[in-house]
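To make this tangible, we now present a fold written out as tokens:
***
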Amino acid sequence: MARLAGVAGGFFTGVGMLLHGFGLWARRPGIMLLGLIPAAIVFIGVIGALVALGFGMPTLTDWLTPFADDWVAPWPDVLRAAVGAILFAAAIVLAAVTFTALTLAVGDPFYERIWHAVELEVGGSVPDHGLGFWRSVRDSLKLIGLGFVAAIGVALSGLVPVVGAVLAPTLGVVLSGRLLALELSSRPFEARGIAGPTRRAILRGHRAQVLGFGIATQLCFMVPLGAVFAMPAAVAGATLLARSALDAAVAAAASAPQPTRSAQG
């Protein structure tokens, strides 16, 4: 019971970090407004792709299910509606991840100012610079690849009998939320020279916070225009998430017993 309470507490702590990120709008509105520019540009492209997919969905589902042409009505329509819903759920996962990846790549100079402002608020060791444009592009391409894999997983989960209709969107929110949290929080780590394996090891002890922050961010992205206004706050909140994990790792290392040398014969 205590462990469950701890997990729930960590989850809502992660949600609170996103809310704290929104609070930066009141403290530093100038840099937050700058963060809207790349988010709005990429949002228009992503929404356009989703709208095109929606209009083309009947043709796509017909092409994917030719075997249902001879079925008795209304079963062909039921099957194709289910397939369309599964595909669109997968597309939303890929769209959210692609939006984040492209926005971070395009708007790296803007978002660097946001996470640096949060770093200064938290205090301690603050890096002087971010990742650079090409490093951001590489990380963004990697995130899109992972998002594509997650979208396939969501589509396959929708094929599970009975529970697939609920499982697919739920899994989509969880997987995309986790990917968003990991990518958004990577800047403070990599600016300190902490590579992927070490970063994942540090965050492993904060799974509930990562999930809470990621799911809250993904749900904000699903609100109309939410992705545009939530993106700067997500960058700020992710910086808090990363700093919390980093500070905990430093404190744990400092309190760990130091190995003693054995006496030499």
